[in-house]
UniProtKB/TrEMBL annotation:
Family to which this protein belongs: Belongs to the esterase D family.
Coiled coil feature spans: none
The name this protein goes by in its record: S-formylglutathione hydrolase
Taxonomic path: Bacteria, Pseudomonadati, Pseudomonadota, Alphaproteobacteria, Rhodobacterales
Record flagged with keyword Hydrolase: yes
UniProt catalytic activity: S-formylglutathione + H2O = formate + glutathione + H(+)
Alphabetical UniProt keywords: Hydrolase, Serine esterase
Catalytic machinery residues: S145, D219, H251
TM regions (residue ranges): none
Main function: Serine hydrolase involved in the detoxification of formaldehyde.
Source organism: Oceaniovalibus guishaninsula JLT2003
Amino acid sequence: MEPLSENACFGGSQLVLRHGSRVCACDMTFGLYLPPQAQDGPVPVLWYLSGLTCTHENAMTKAGAQAHAAHLGMALVFPDTSPRGEDVADDDAFDMGKGAGFYVDATEAPWASHYKMRSYVADELPGLLGDFPVDMDRQAITGHSMGGHGALTLAMGSPGRFASVSAFSPICNPSASDWGRKQFAAYLGDGDHAAHDASLLMADRGFDGPVLCDTGTADQFADLLRPETLAQAMAARRQPGAFRMQKGYDHSYFFVQTFIGDHLDFHAEALGL
Ligand SMILES: N[C@@H](CCC(=O)N[C@@H](CS)C(=O)NCC(=O)O)C(=O)O
């Protein structure tokens, strides 16, 4: 693993690291924030999965999460959203290919050779965190938009792994949205689309911990996100958690940074901090 940068941040350290990914068959870059408490021993960790067009850098520089994480004593991981490199397939549309891995393992050409973001985030990257003072028995997960979809589907698909899950303006029902149908057809072909649909997973099995979901009432992508499908599924299942529509907020990082403190407090409680 190669350190690309390290910056002091709220008494802790913001690292950017690059490594050769076995599952994505390319170099991958991620951000890792270690709070000051990590100097005394392993700390719980919150995964932050980002949205369309993002790299590891957007949330790391724009979500404002580090101040809260430093106060609470929580590490933050910021993975990239797709494989990278010249030989990695791409698409002209911003919502396909690079920057749009959708946290699935592609099975179809030309995507299958590199687009394995589910395995990357769920299996490979956690294995690499053993080099750092991070307590992998205490994990929680959050994400924004496509990353909210990733957080919810990974949490519900990995029972017992995450103490809590939250999402900012998640894509809630990709198998019935233009943010999902096109990508699942390309990446997964006729494979199991429902296994990657948060609202269908919520209806089918729910999550064995608390859920927090925030979406802005002025979100310009609301018709693609379909928040009503997750709200309905949570209520029908009696899922412990909160589903909130935040008045006046749009899809941007101004929305994320407004509520990131709420989300970190929510995860801290579930993680026993
Ligand atoms: N570029 C797209 C929008 C993509 C977008 O809003 N991406 C969100 C996540 S879905 C994001 O976080 N963008 C990066 C940023 O704001 O830093 C468009 O113009 O329609």
